[in-house]
Amino acid sequence: MLISRDIAIIGSGAWGTALAIHAARLGWSARLWARRPELAEKIQNTRENEAFLPGFSLPPEVTVISDPAQAVTGAGLVIWVVPSHGLRDVARLFRPFLNPKTILMSATKGIEDNTYSSMTQILAQECAQDTPIGAMSGPSFAREVAQGLPTAVTVAFRDAAVAKTIQSLLSAPVYRIYTSQDVTGVELGGAMKNVYAIAAGVCDGLSLGYNARAAFLTRSLAEMTRLAAAMGANPLTLSGLSGLGDLMLTATGDLSRNRKVGLRLGAGESLADILANQRAVAEGVNNARSIWGLAQAKNLILPTAREIYRVLHEGKDPRQGLVDLLTRRLKDELAPDLIPKSLTH
User: Fold this and answer.
1) Cys-Cys link to 119, which of 21, 104, 106, 277 (CB 3.0-4.6 A)?
2) Residue that finishes a domain, picked among 181, 196, 230
């Protein structure tokens, strides 16, 4: 499959900027879209995204613009990197200017409130594309990608040929891409790990120790697998880069915004105060609500997801949440009612 080497990246946060830098290093002509004209002009002129990814110069192949039509015209690939709660509105903004032959790929990690739609589902609903729509996810801090440090991610399209095309075009010795046809699993892993990273941060903020964090993360992965399987995903996907890999990074890495939210909650700060002075979006805050709502809709037992939802959105004290988790009825680790049916047959 041949596609234009022009790439449009919709969203000028840290991750979008890092992807633009990476694409430019590979010889792509990258157009980075910023919603605010004044921000686009500033980044274009200074050649640095001082607000979201300071310290990195944009290669000459990167053009920063705010006009939607100019951003996507002629692009062979459009990558969406806006916050999950805003993707639907942004997709509607771009719809009139998209070529129906352009491949769309989400690099946004989240589940929409109320509708429980994934990011690729939103793109399919709003952009009316007949061409493939896929997702990229995995353990990938923006700053390290911009630095050119080794990173591995997964690109998922239901059409394996399209996934292989994107793999060949965006892979580099320091940016290894694996392919998958399990779009549902890859997207759910990327969305859920943010929620559990907040929980892990709370654990560390309460100074509970390494044993407790390891237990939290192990049981978190079990919950992630349970929900993904209920949604029709391959449970093994959650043991890969977009599940376990991204969970480990986001829950333990010091660059993680979601982990930092949890640390500060565990230290006694209120969520309102934390969000008031945090510039970048911590996706796990909103997604705690959507993941818990999705679990309820599927009648699933996700104790950690339930407690972090209550801490974030019902004002529950983190210490009480911990007590309630640890004092639940004792169970067998592999009890049939606690794991996806697809793993018991």
Assistant:
1) 106
2) 181
